[in-house]
Design brief:
By secondary structure, this protein is of the alpha/beta class. The strands form two sheets. A six-stranded parallel sheet has the order 6-2-1-7-8-9, with helices on both faces. Strands 3-5-4 form a three-stranded antiparallel sheet. The longest helix is centred in the first third of the chain and has 18 residues. Pfam families: DS.
Length: about 325
């Protein structure tokens, strides 16, 4: 038995620790019976450098599709290209409004303890804008992740890397040919830049980027194909919001709207979040609520971990990897 696995099985006996271990065991069980794992990611996990562990999960075929906020999609590349220019602020809880303004004046945008330089991706911004322009000019729209993959295919792009390539989960996903769903592209730095490129006339229209409903259709086609092949699909959720609620709804959409009543429910569900159980909050909704929406079944293995995903997710990943 490996070090982390042994540690978790020895010490993670109760409360959130027990739930964490059970979720990790459930992930292994799903894969052992030929299942696939769909991972969703909200929050600032790419800025938290989740790629160090998530990229290995992707490379080792433990994750098979991803839905994330467009911010997480782009921030993995921001870290890849600009990590050395980031500024750490360990005392972030003690910052006054004046200290925050000082960071702003220095050209930094703060995400908890990490300040991202305002000019992130400037080395390659012209290249990705050219990709958008080409897509609009040729009426060849693409999903946001496809532009990222095209960017990573640019000659000499690796010369701009400031962290090891193996620490980028987007690069790992590209190499494995994974689909990355990113609903709400406009709610991101690159989404804002794309809009500015259209307004300025440098990109002739908004049609260069494919819409969210097209992403839902692509997911529905993949989920249906997996179902027909008898492949159970698990759902591992980091945080909540659109990154999770968008893809998990593919099951009730198939069953209720398309009337594909033989569609299987998600075969596993786990969530890491720091939201307490609450009224009206998606992040704070317990897994059982999803049964009433036609997303999970009564017997679906379900786990709710109330903790910091930056701590818990790498532990679960390590357990699944057998580390």
């Amino acid at each position: 038995m490996s070090t982390i696995t042994r540690f978790m099985e020895t010490h993670f006996r109760h409360f959130n620790a027990r739930e964490t271990l059970d979720a990790a065991k459930g992930w292994r069980d799903l894969l052992d019976r030929g299942g696939k794992m769909f991972l969703t990611m909200a929050g600032a996990m790419s800025t938290a450098e989740i790629g160090v562990s998530l990229a290995e999960m992707i490379r080792k075929d433990k994750v098979h599709a991803i839905s994330c906020t467009a911010a997480n999609l782009e921030e993995d590349l921001f870290n890849l290209f600009n990590h050395n220019e980031y500024k750490m602020v360990p005392h972030y809880r003690d910052l006054s409004p004046e200290m925050e303004k000082e960071l702003y004046d220095q050209g930094f945008n703060r995400v908890t303890d990490t300040c991202i330089p305002e000019g992130v991706l400037r080395q390659v911004q012209r290249q990705i804008a050219e990709l958008w322009k080409r897509a609009a000019d040729t009426n060849s729209p693409k999903f946001p992740y496809e532009f990222m993959y095209d960017l990573l295919d640019q000659p000499g792009i690796q010369d701009h890397f400031q962290v090891p390539a193996e620490h980028s989960w987007v690069l790992a996903a590209k190499e494995k040919g994974l689909t990355i769903y990113s609903p709400g592209f406009e709610d991101s730095t690159l989404g804002n830049i794309f809009c500015s490129e259209v307004i300025s006339g440098r990109v002739k229209n908004h049609g260069a980027v494919r819409h969210g409903t097209e992403q839902m259709q692509k997911l529905a086609e993949w989920y249906t194909a997996m179902g027909k092949a008898g492949t159970p699909i698990g759902f591992f959720q980091i945080g909540g919001g659109i990154a999770a609620d968008f893809p998990i709804c593919v099951v009730p959409m198939l069953i209720q709207d398309l009337e594909h009543e033989d569609t299987p429910f998600w075969a596993y569900f786990a969530q890491i979040g720091d939201s307490t159980t609450s009224y009206g909050s998606y992040s704070g909704a317990v897994p059982n609520e999803k049964i009433t929406w036609g997303k999970l079944d009564v017997g679906t293995p379900s786990f709710m971990i109330n903790s910091d995903a930056a701590i818990v997710a790498p532990l679960i990943f390590a357990y699944v990897l057998g580390m």
